[in-house]
Amino acid sequence: MMNIVNVKKSYGQGSSRVEVLKGINLKIESGETLALVGKSGSGKSTLLSLMAGLDQVDSGEIWIQEKCVNKLSEKELTLFRAQNIGIVFQQFHLVSTLTALENVLLPLNILKNPNALDVATKLIDQVGLSHRSHHLPSELSGGESQRVAIARALSTSPAILFADEPSGNLDEETGAKVMDLLFEMVKQTKTTLILVTHDMDLAKKCSRIILLEHGSLA
Amino acid sequence: MIFKLFLVKEIKKFPLFFLLLIFTLLLGTLGLTGISVVSEQVKGKLEANARELQTSDLAVSARRDLLPGELEALNTIISPIKHQTYKIVDIYSMVRHEKTSQTRLTEIRSVEQGFPFYGEIVLKAGLFQVDGLYISNDLAEIWEVAVGDDLKIGDKVFRVKGIVTRDSSQGLRGFSLAPRIYLPLKDVETTGLLRPGSTGSYARHFMLPTFLQPDFEKLRDQLLKVLPDSAIKVTLPQESSDQSGRVIGYLTDFMSLAALIGLLLSLVGIFYLYQSNLLARLRDFCLFHLMGLDKKHIILGLILQFSIVFLIVFTLQAFLIVPGYKLIYPILSNSLGIDLSPEVNLKAVFSQLPFLYGLTLAILIPLLLGLMRTSMGLQLKAPKISMGQFRFYDFTPFIILLWAFAAFISHSIKMGSLFFGALLIVFVLSTFLIKLIQWLLKKYVANRGLLSPSIEAGVAIRNIIHSGHKLTLSFLSLTLSATLISLILQLDSLIQKEFTLDESKPSLFIFDIQEDQMQELQNFASQKGVKLEGVTPMIRARLDKVNGKSFARVDEPSNLRTREDEVDARMKNRGINLTYRKDLSPAETLVEGKPFPDEAPQNNRPAFVSMEKRYAQRLGLKIGDHVTFDIQGVEVEGLIRNFREVKWTSFYPNFFVNVEPGFIDEAPKTYLAVLPQGKKEIKRYFQREAVGKFPNISFVDVEELIQKLTSLFDKARKAIGVISWLSLAIGLVILYGLSHDQVYRRYYDLALMKTLGFSPGALRKHLLIEFGFLFLLALGVGFFLGWLMAIIIGREVFKLGWSINWSMILYPGLLLSVLCLVTILFSSWNAVKAKPRELLSDS
Ligand SMILES: Nc1ncnc2c1ncn2[C@@H]1O[C@H](COP(=O)(O)OP(=O)(O)OP(=O)(O)O)[C@@H](O)[C@H]1O
Ligand SMILES: [Mg+2]
């Protein structure tokens, strides 16, 4: 369902040029859960941003469900991303002026989903935050925020869910709870998961672990 | 150490912040400093020429000639002192140009040998001597009068001997209403113009070569003691210059207040600049703190830093003001009618410095206190840096200073407080409005789902609901500048409307009609096919006692503190003109008390008196007070029965004090009358004929007067207009900064919305809806409040009715809206470039 062919990415120019990804090849099957591990600065977030269509590759191709993502126009990409990709960030990144429920509603509303409210309410319920659904992000704890973020990422039933160190900003206990929730929901919905993490215990919960080192996959 | 840290390292690290800070502060203070420089130049010029302006060391003057007894008293004091003296009589009178048979009102200054002791009268050709008729250049130009032409003044014809091109005894020519003519006093005495009751001023001037300044003050006190009549003034040169500078003083007071709004807006900007900057520097401060620098020193360092910035701003200002002034001083000289010096006195730039410094520093107090309240130790551990909150009462020093400053620059506690109050109202109203809108949106729109009415609007509405005081203040600053602009435009159109010639205004205002001429003049008018209206007697009097206590003369020393003190002193010292009339004129309304009774007065009660309300208030009089008038030596008892408001711009004869008929009718008097609006030729013909027959009667062409007044208002309006557009420019800069800041703060939100499927167009649209809605609303509210204030001022000051000038709302409103929207677009255009990739970075 996802195929990455010889993807290269570098930052900077001239002498300060850093080759971060030196030709990545990777195939991911539908329903797989994949952990991407590697040292800090090895390029995990970079690779994730390319796969999720948040950034442009220098060369190579990224295919998701028979579509070459890096050949899409900005407008097509925006729509494709909204329909097929969900992202959970380390910093939660909730829209600060929208309530928890509205944050989950937002992607559904952008896609003009007719059942938006039902879907969102159900998801909020699933992540156990019905009693918090009308609160603003500033009134939520870290764990609660991340649960909203997970609900939001899954609201459009994306084919792939990307998560970049989703428990990185949470304490151990909360982090573990939130991750259990994430895995459970991914399993229920049979979503493909690509998880960047430092935590080997967490990585082991995935069906496959890949290591990024010196710009290529080991 | 601190010095190096705050003055070198920090400034290097945040160059943009310091540049913006300097720019904003410079823009905000430039208006105030510019105004104070110009007014100081004018005042300086008048002061430097004070003796030339008065032409003598000391003058004793009144609206009447001194009585023999008074003259004797004066002489006993003056004659032992070495002195020279002459008499000047200024009267207003009609002059007829024999060649063209045109007539017009002029100021006739009759002088004696020796005039002027100080200063000079420069002629186009030849030397000024007290031996004939000299006319001012203005008159020569209006009428094309040449040397050798004949002018008829009173009963006599004089030949023009010279044309005056420069007259050091005239203050601001730009503000005088009648051109001046010089004549020898002995000739004027033969014209028959110096009749009792005619409008004029009689002054005896002295040159005392052996005297020093303190002696003059003493001499004045001595003279005031022997000349107890409060209608007599003893003036020293300083006061003459103050008097000429008064108009410019009022004008600069108002302009300074308008400029204060500009400063206020820039202070709002500075507050935000500092707030974001302090937040950005907080981590550094925490590190300094960790390394052993305590909070007090950090704050001290910040104050030091700010002081340096302030000094830079003022140095820059001096560099801008000097060439700026050199550029405009010829225009200023011309429009004020005074030869200003091309050299700038920079004292004015620095006179407001302490206040400005204090005010700017005061707006930073809440932020510095917030910093004091920050627990710096905790910050380095916390995931997100946050600063201690400031409290509302932290603004108290700023608010008090602002109030004081408003009073200081307007030279009036009342004006300053009114201004401050108006600001407060705008502030409270806009805060209330924005809260109301947030509440309404929350209550009625927020529960309808994000898609109502569209996804962009839905998100924008939520942004509005949840945005904090930043938004309120940017809303407020826009409202303030819109209010100011609208106020000036509306007031302007009200005044313009008032000062246009229409049916309701007379075409000629006639005064100095002698008692025995009234009937004759009326007959003459009807012979010529016109009818005089508003015939009103005028009686010279003095207010002697109030409730039995004598109404003491207030000295008019040069160190009066406020404009109100000045006005009070002048009011109390001035003789007053009375009339008697039973009913109100069309321009009057009774506002308090009862009208005069219908039955004939019984002789054992005092006469009822009707007073103009504001005049009475200035003198501290109430309804029911007993007043005693001295009418040319006869005491008349009065009882204040009612207060009137008068619409002075009607140009009909109106009086501050009106006495019930039957008490003072026999007193010596002159008459006033008007000729109603009609054909221009009739007016000219009537005036020409009437002047020929009654040379002592004065005619004011109302149309000309209105033109003159309008041109005066025009100058004031232009000056204030410049200031208010400057304020708007500042407002827009602030607006730009604030919307830019908002967009920057929401960088992650915007990047996020992009990842969630918002297209760049949709992003722009939602920003435009959010800012556009608020800012257009602010404009609307500002325009409304400005209009409202214009109506109130128009009512209180000019007694005008309400009206609305839509074109003065529509066009500037449109212009401002476009400016605003462009500013918003400009500041948020780049927002859509927010990179979603950065959402994945750690901090
Ligand atoms: N916008 C950028 N410009 C220049 N260099 C960048 C940029 N983004 C990332 N880099 C560099 O690319 C390399 C990979 O960064 P990336 O964020 O992908 O690492 P990471 O594996 O996610 O690290 P971490 O585990 O710390 O999150 C780093 O050396 C980083 O400095
Ligand atoms: Mg990373």
**Lateral strand order in the biggest sheet of chain A:** 6-7-8-3-9-10
Coarse shape of chain B: elongated
Considering the protein shown, what is the CATH homologous superfamily of chain A?
A: P-loop containing nucleotide triphosphate hydrolases
Kindly state the mean pLDDT of chain A as a whole number? Answer: 91
Q: Low-confidence segments of chain B, ≥5 residues, pLDDT <50?
A: none
Q: Determine the structural class of chain A based on helices, strands and strand pairing.
A: alpha/beta
Distance between the termini of chain B: 31 Å
- Fraction of residues of chain B in helices? 40-55%
The largest pleated sheet of chain B is described as: 6 strands, mixed, barrel
Work out the radius of gyration of chain A.
Answer: 17 Å
Which whole number gives the mean pLDDT of chain B?
82
CATH fold title of chain A:
Rossmann fold
CATH class of chain A: Alpha Beta
Strand residue percentage of chain A: 25-35%
List its salient traits.
heterodimer; A: alpha/beta; Rossmann fold; 7 helices; globular; B: 843 residues; alpha+beta; 21 strands; elongated; binds adenosine-5'-triphosphate; binds magnesium ion
Write structural notes for this entry.
The complex is a heterodimer of chains A (218) and B (843). Chain A is of the alpha/beta class and 218 residues long. Chain A has one domain: P-loop containing nucleotide triphosphate hydrolases (Rossmann fold). Chain A has seven helices and ten strands. In chain A, α5 runs parallel beside α6 (172-189). The longest helix of chain A has 18 residues, at 172-189. Chain A starts with a strand and ends with a strand. In chain A, 48% of the residues are buried. Chain B is of the alpha+beta class. Chain B has four domains: 1-54 and 248-396, no CATH class; 55-245, no CATH class; 412-501 and 704-843, no CATH class; 506-676, no CATH class. Helices cover 54% and strands 17% of the residues of chain B. Chain B contains 24 helices and 21 strands. Chain B is elongated, with a radius of gyration of 33 Å. The model of chain B has no long low-confidence stretch (mean pLDDT 82). The chains are: A alpha/beta (218), B alpha+beta (843). The A-B interface holds A 45, 48-49, 52, 54-55, 74-75, 78-79, 81-82, 87, 89-91, 93, 95-98, 102, 105-107, 109-111, 116-117, 136, 152, 164, 169 and B 383, 449-451, 455, 458-459, 462-463, 465-467, 746, 748-749, 752-760, 835-837, 839-842. The structure holds adenosine-5'-triphosphate and magnesium ion.
